[in-house]
């Protein structure tokens, strides 16, 4: 029941929101809807009644597809992320003006519904359905409310993700025909009879689809452009939550479906992702634009998660589970600050910024904390995840871990440079008359900072939340 | 009770940090100093408890990371080693907090509070570092102190150079931290635990390769934190921070974390001759290298910074030759006299309104008597002249080095000579001769207020008498520190050299130090070195051009690689490919579109051709299927 | 007369029609060519129908023939009726076209482009 509500509430709320003309009531309504979703998600985590977490009715019996939704450890943590991030984002942009606000926030809620659907569905067809459902609002939001080059960039985004989706669709249909009972159910997919060669093909089709979404080098170039050009509120959704769909797909579908193929290809993929991490980190150092820097930093972080997944070490996978949440929280925090700066000063370029700490001390402190989380400093949430992931990677291959760990040095370099160039030093023309962030922004950031610190000091509840699912997952893939 | 020690500074940090706009300076000072004083009191109680033979207290607070492969608790361990470090950290920390209330008084309210909150956060992190009962908690403190160092170096954040120095410090430390982390992962993957007690109990389960690998990786961390070759260049730049910060973080406490870690892991290091030798070689190399640079520096803080690097090198030499007590002892005495030196320098800088160049000082003896006398005591202590504290600790290291390999001893004595030389050059140039500053400065010259001089006097007493905590057997001493630490430093090598040899060695090193000190005094008291150096001196003044070397060999190539990735591979390579595919499709569509010319005739013609092709395909169906079957 | 003769004649007429449609630009001529193609098909229909009647009556001597050989003629009439209707519509279109653009050149009407 909770599982169904998690999807239905944002769908209905989003549809209603599309028709609200008044900007402030549209914002208020979407905020209320997102808070209800958050309440439901928390209910899902704390409830002791297991039957509330399942939902299962017939959908297309002829095809063998059912609407099966379930909240397990993985979907709990990801639906929590989705549910937490949406109100935070809405609060952070509450005072910004959006033309056609009703439609904008309605689409955001629909997107949230799609993502929640992806995380909850236990049926391949349903999964694909929600996967696409989450993307459609994305296209509209980017192409209508985006930056100058939005059409071009949305086109690129569209082509990339659509290629991925199609590859995945092909693979889903192929596997479907080889399931023992001609069903789209997750269990049937796990037990599909495929020859070794077919498994390889299907593995790569799925992997590329998910790799584009994550994104993993070299399928990542849509990401910085899209992050740069989309409206920042949506960039937060995109990078905070939507890229987790790719990692989620690997955990829920790819690895348990093709454990052998995953093992035989793991060295290629881990090498690729580690190269991608270094590559993205080095590019991030050379960026002159806050959004692009954060985008590349995100590529590096997601690369680590992907590498840790394919390393298939238990500690690493536990790290990935909690890091998916933590990364979402941290990067949303960074985007909020970028958004404030861009809206207020009209630029994101380091060369045109400086000395903001004198004018906006509160913003500076909150931003520094988020940055420290981004470099995975101990006692911030990201440290726990990265520590576990690196230790898993080390078990898999010390050389890979040794190479990948260079990224934490590079991460410090680019993140601190960003702080220095934007907040420290003397004020420049653009920041001369800057003022501190408004109350709603501070509130959103404080919520995130509290999450960062609480889960940095005491991460065990989150590890416990996902423990059983990780156990199951490990037995399935080994 | 151990958790109280870091708790007070944490509370102080939160109070000062959150209410920095509303608290008055006096209150901020009371909170900041009071928090550390409270920790100090608790530390003393803990120390006495441990000294009285109290049970080894390992106190789990709560589970930190419990996963299937390993369990890491938030757990504190109070034993001989950590309780000693607690005393040093909170004791000297308190004195420096007190000093800061006066030194930083010109700052505005909120920045004053910010300063104290950072300082408290630092003490908190440092206490975590030494209290942690496993490597992960140590690492938390380890990175925490790195963060505070970063924040405090960049405390005056309007100055871009300071910020760059702060970044440099953090990034170089991160290089070490990466090694440290890998070492922890190695331990976890082999033993499934990072608790000191469990690790040291199960050392026998590790192969020699494992031990060497782990110790070397951990040592990379120590190199970063304790500013050893090749990761030392951040420390001199870190002098950008306020002087009390330099005294506390970059001299007395944080930089000795590497020594603490190696000493803590003595059970591992003593099993790996490779690691021990490397530690000793890096230590002595750093000691000498930094000393040569210190000789030609003119910035009073830079001299002290290189002196710190050099002294840390001695401590690593001691660790490498197995004289763990000697190193820890030197950490202690060094904390006394180096904090004193920095605070004295701060007093001078404060009096001269932020003048740091020694060439513009001179003759301060008569204007600032307390500062002068305490500074002189510290100079004698660091030069290793008996019976000041530095003599005892340095001699213990040198004697152990001689037992291990006389070459270490010879190099060590050369280094000791250089130490005495640059310290007395500093002393002579600053305090002796005539004042060379502006009339304006001369007019304002005065002795510093009590908040500054009291810590100086206390530290001067310690710098003088600190050596008597561990008087060697040769002087009939009881080696109290040695006995006190023996439960934790079980792996200590007993250096067996005859008393006569030891006396001779002492005589030589003291003689060299005295000689160097006298040369420096006679040379610089009358005629300070004011001209720009030439030849080798220029190379030394420019720090052997190591910063330039790093820039050109590591930083710039990496940046160039990043630029290449950004502009070439990303834009032309991957994006070029993707856009190329798109472009090709667009181009071909544009061509294909011309077929649709709107003339019905063309369409019909195409239709007819298509029908013909289909008809042919139908006709030759068998051939075509055969063909495809052959291909696939 | 062998069936081939009819087929060849019909094919020839059809090809003439196709060629006419393809190469002429005058709408009226194209229209006539379309009619020509239509009629070639009519001719084939009648010819095959007759042929089938002849074969079946030869095979089933004495019994009643399956077809009378005239069903196709019915179809042909039907087609001719439809064609007449088409002509009336088609000519009307051509007249309208002439009124609008003062030409019966079909290439003039290339607005399907783009």
From TrEMBL, chain A:
Keywords: Membrane, Transmembrane, Transmembrane helix. This is NADH dehydrogenase subunit M. It is a multi-pass membrane protein. GO terms for biological process: ATP synthesis coupled electron transport; electron transport coupled proton transport. Residues 121-404 form the NADH:quinone oxidoreductase/Mrp antiporter transmembrane domain. It is found in: Endomembrane system; Membrane. GO terms for molecular function: NADH dehydrogenase (ubiquinone) activity; NADH dehydrogenase activity; ubiquinone binding. It comes from the Bacteria. InterPro entries: NADH_Q_OxRdtase_chainM/4, NADH_UbQ_OxRdtase, ND/Mrp_TM. It holds the Pfam family Proton_antipo_M. GO terms for cellular component: endomembrane system; membrane. Belongs to the complex I subunit 4 family. The chain crosses the membrane at residues 6-21, 28-46, 77-94, 101-120, 126-145, 157-177, 189-212, 233-255, 267-286, 293-311, 323-341, 362-384, 396-419, 439-458. Its main location: membrane.
UniProtKB/TrEMBL annotation, chain B:
Residues 64-116 form the NADH-Ubiquinone oxidoreductase (complex I) chain 5 N-terminal domain. GO terms for cellular component: endomembrane system; membrane. Its main location: membrane. GO terms for biological process: ATP synthesis coupled electron transport; electron transport coupled proton transport. Gene3D superfamilies: 1.20.5.2700. GO terms for molecular function: NADH dehydrogenase (ubiquinone) activity; NADH dehydrogenase activity. Residues 134-419 form the NADH:quinone oxidoreductase/Mrp antiporter transmembrane domain. Pfam families: Proton_antipo_M, Proton_antipo_N. It is a multi-pass membrane protein. It comes from the Bacteria. Keywords: Membrane, Transmembrane, Transmembrane helix. It is found in: Endomembrane system; Membrane. The chain crosses the membrane at residues 30-48, 84-103, 115-133, 139-157, 169-188, 208-224, 245-263, 269-291, 303-325, 331-352, 373-392, 407-428, 449-475, 503-521, 600-620. NCBIfam families: NDH_I_L, PRK06590.1. This is NADH dehydrogenase subunit L. It comes from Parafilimonas terrae.
Automatic annotation (TrEMBL), chain C:
It is a multi-pass membrane protein. It catalyses: a quinone + NADH + 5 H(+)(in) = a quinol + NAD(+) + 4 H(+)(out). Its EC number is 7.1.1.-. GO terms for cellular component: NADH dehydrogenase complex; plasma membrane. It is found in: Cell membrane; Membrane. GO terms for biological process: ATP synthesis coupled electron transport. It is an enzyme of class 7 (translocase). InterPro entries: NADH_UbQ_OxRdtase_chain4L/K (IPR001133), NUOK/Mnh_C1-like (IPR039428). One of its GO terms (molecular function) is NADH dehydrogenase (quinone) (non-electrogenic) activity. It comes from the Bacteria. Keywords: Cell membrane, Membrane, NAD, Quinone, Translocase, Transmembrane, Transmembrane helix, Transport. The chain crosses the membrane at residues 6-24, 36-55, 75-98. NDH-1 is composed of 14 different subunits. Subunits NuoA, H, J, K, L, M, N constitute the membrane sector of the complex. Belongs to the complex I subunit 4L family. PANTHER family: NADH DEHYDROGENASE SUBUNIT 4L-RELATED, NADH-UBIQUINONE OXIDOREDUCTASE SUBUNIT ND4L. NDH-1 shuttles electrons from NADH, via FMN and iron-sulfur (Fe-S) centers, to quinones in the respiratory chain. The immediate electron acceptor for the enzyme in this species is believed to be ubiquinone. Couples the redox reaction to proton translocation (for every two electrons transferred, four hydrogen ions are translocated across the cytoplasmic membrane), and thus conserves the redox energy in a proton gradient. This is NADH-quinone oxidoreductase subunit K.
């Amino acid at each position: 029941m909770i599982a169904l509500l998690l999807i239905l509430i944002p769908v209905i709320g989003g549809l209603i929101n599309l028709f609200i003309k008044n900007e402030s009531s549209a914002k208020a309504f979407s905020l209320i809807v997102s808070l209800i979703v958050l309440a439901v998600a928390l209910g899902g985590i704390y409830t002791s009644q297991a039957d509330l977490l399942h939902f299962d009715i017939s959908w297309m019996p002829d095809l063998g597809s059912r609407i099966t939704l379930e909240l397990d450890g993985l979907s709990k943590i990801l639906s929590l992320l989705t549910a937490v991030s949406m109100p935070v984002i809405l609060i952070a942009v509450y005072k910004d003006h959006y033309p056609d606000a009703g439609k904008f926030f309605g689409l955001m809620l629909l997107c949230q519904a799609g993502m929640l659907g992806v995380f909850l569905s236990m049926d391949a067809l349903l999964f694909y359905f929600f996967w696409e459902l989450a993307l459609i609002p994305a296209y509209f939001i980017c192409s209508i409310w985006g930056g100058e080059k939005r059409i071009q960039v949305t086109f690129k985004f569209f082509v990339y993700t659509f290629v991925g989706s199609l590859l995945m669709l092909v693979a889903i249909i192929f596997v479907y025909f080889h399931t023992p009972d001609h069903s789209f159910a997750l269990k049937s997919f796990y037990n599909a009879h495929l020859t070794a060669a077919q498994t390889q093909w299907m593995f790569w089709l799925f992997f590329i689809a998910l790799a584009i979404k994550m994104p993993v080098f070299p399928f990542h170039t849509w990401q910085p452009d899209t992050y740069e050009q989309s409206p920042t509120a949506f960039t937060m959704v995109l990078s905070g939550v939507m890229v987790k769909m790719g990692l989620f797909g690997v955990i829920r579908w790819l690895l348990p479906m093709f454990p052998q193929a995953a093992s035989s290809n793991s060295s290629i993929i881990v090498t690729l992702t580690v190269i991608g991490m270094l590559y993205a980190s080095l590019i991030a150092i050379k960026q002159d634009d806050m959004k692009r820097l954060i985008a590349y930093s995100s590529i590096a972080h997601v690369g680590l998660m992907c590498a840790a997944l394919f390393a298939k070490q238990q500690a690493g996978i536990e790290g990935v589970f909690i890091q998916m949440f933590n990364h979402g929280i941290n990067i949303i925090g960074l985007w909020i600050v970028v958004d404030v700066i861009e809206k207020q000063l009209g630029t994101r370029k380091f060369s045109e910024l400086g000395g903001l700490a004198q004018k906006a001390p509160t913003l500076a402190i909150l931003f520094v904390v988020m940055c420290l989380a981004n470099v995975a400093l101990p006692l911030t949430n990201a440290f726990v995840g990265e520590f576990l992931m690196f230790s898993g990677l080390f078990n898999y291959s010390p050389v890979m871990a040794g190479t990948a760990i260079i990224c934490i040095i590079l991460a410090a370099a680019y993140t601190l440079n960003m702080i220095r160039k934007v907040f420290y030093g003397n004020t420049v023309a653009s920041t001369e008359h800057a003022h501190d962030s408004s109350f709603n922004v501070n509130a959103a950031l404080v919520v995130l900072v509290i999450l960062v610190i609480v889960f940095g000091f005491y991460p065990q509840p989150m590890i416990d939340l996902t423990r059983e699912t990780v156990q199951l997952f490990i037995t399935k893939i080994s | 009770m151990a958790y109280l020690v870091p708790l007070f500074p944490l509370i102080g940090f939160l109070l000062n940090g959150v209410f920095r706009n509303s608290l008055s300076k006096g209150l901020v000072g009371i909170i900041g100093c009071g928090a550390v004083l409270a920790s100090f009191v608790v530390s003393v109680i803990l120390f006495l408890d441990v000294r009285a033979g109290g049970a080894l207290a390992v106190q789990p607070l709560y589970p930190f990371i419990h996963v299937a492969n390993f369990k890491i608790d938030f757990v504190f361990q109070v034993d001989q080693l950590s309780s000693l470090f607690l005393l040093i950290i909170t004791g000297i920390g308190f004195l420096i907090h007190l000093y800061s209330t006066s030194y930083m008084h010109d700052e505005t309210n909120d920045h004053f509070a910010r300063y104290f909150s950072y300082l408290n956060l630092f003490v908190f992190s440092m206490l975590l570092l030494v209290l942690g009962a496993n490597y992960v908690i140590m690492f938390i403190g380890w990175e925490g102190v790195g963060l505070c160092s970063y924040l405090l170096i960049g405390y005056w954040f309007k100055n871009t150079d300071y910020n760059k120095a702060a970044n440099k410090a953090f990034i170089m430390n991160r290089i070490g931290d990466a090694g440290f982390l890998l070492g922890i992962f190695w331990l976890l993957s082999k033993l499934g635990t990072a608790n000191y007690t469990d690790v040291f109990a199960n050392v026998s389960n590790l192969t020699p390769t494992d031990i060497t690998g782990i110790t070397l990786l951990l040592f990379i961390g120590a190199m970063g934190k304790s500013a050893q070759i090749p990761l030392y260049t951040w420390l001199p730049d870190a002098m950008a921070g306020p002087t009390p910060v330099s005294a506390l973080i970059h001299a007395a406490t944080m930089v000795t974390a590497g020594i603490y870690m190696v000493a803590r892991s003595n059970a591992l290091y003593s099993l790996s001759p490779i690691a021990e030798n490397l530690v000793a070689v890096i230590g002595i190399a750093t000691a000498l290298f930094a000393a040569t640079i210190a000789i030609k520096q003119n910035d009073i803080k830079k001299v002290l910074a290189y002196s710190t690097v050099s002294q840390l090198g001695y401590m690593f030499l001691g660790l490498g030759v197995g004289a763990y007590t000697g190193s820890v002892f030197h950490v202690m005495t060094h904390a006394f006299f180096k904090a004193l030196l920095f605070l004295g320098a701060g007093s001078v800088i404060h009096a001269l309104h932020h003048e740091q160049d020694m060439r513009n000082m001179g003759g301060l003896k008569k204007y600032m008597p307390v500062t002068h006398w305490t500074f002189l005591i510290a100079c004698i202590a660091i030069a290793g002249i008996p019976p000041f504290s530095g003599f005892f600790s340095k001699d213990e290291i040198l004697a152990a080095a001689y037992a291990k390999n006389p070459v270490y001893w010879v190099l060590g004595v050369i280094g000791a000579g250089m130490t005495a030389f640059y310290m007395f050059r500093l002393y002579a140039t600053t305090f002796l001769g005539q004042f060379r500053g502006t009339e304006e400065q001369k007019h304002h010259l005065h002795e510093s207020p009590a908040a500054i001089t009291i810590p100086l006097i206390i530290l001067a007493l310690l710098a003088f008498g600190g050596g008597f905590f561990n008087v060697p057997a040769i002087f009939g001493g009881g080696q109290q520190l040695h006995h006190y630490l023996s439960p934790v430093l079980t792996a200590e090598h007993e250096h067996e050299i005859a008393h006569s040899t030891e006396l001779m060695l002492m005589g030589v090193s003291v003689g060299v130090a005295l000689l160097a000190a006298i040369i420096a005094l006679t040379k610089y008291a009358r005629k300070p070195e004011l001209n720009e150096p030439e030849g080798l001196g220029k190379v030394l003044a420019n720090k052997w051009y190591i910063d330039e070397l790093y820039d050109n060999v590591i930083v710039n190539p990496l940046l160039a690689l990043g630029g290449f990735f950004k502009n070439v591979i990303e834009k032309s390579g991957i994006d070029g490919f993707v856009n190329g595919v798109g472009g090709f499709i667009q181009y071909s569509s544009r061509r294909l579109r011309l077929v649709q010319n709107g003339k019905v005739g063309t369409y019909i013609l195409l239709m007819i051709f298509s029908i013909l092709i289909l008809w042919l395909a139908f006709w030759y169906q068998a051939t075509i299927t055969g063909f495809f079957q052959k291909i696939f | 007369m062998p069936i081939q003769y009819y087929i060849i004649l019909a094919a020839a007429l059809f090809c003439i029609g196709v060629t006419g449609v393809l190469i002429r630009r005058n709408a009226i001529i194209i229209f006539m060519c379309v009619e020509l193609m239509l009629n070639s098909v009519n001719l084939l229909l009648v010819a095959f129908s007759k042929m089938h009647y002849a074969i079946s009556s030869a095979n089933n001597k004495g019994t009643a023939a399956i077809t009378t050989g005239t069903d196709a003629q019915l179809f042909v009439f039907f087609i001719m009726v439809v064609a007449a209707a088409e002509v009336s519509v088609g000519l009307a279109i051509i007249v309208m076209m002439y009124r609008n653009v003062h030409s019966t050149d079909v290439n003039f009407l290339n607005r399907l482009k783009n």
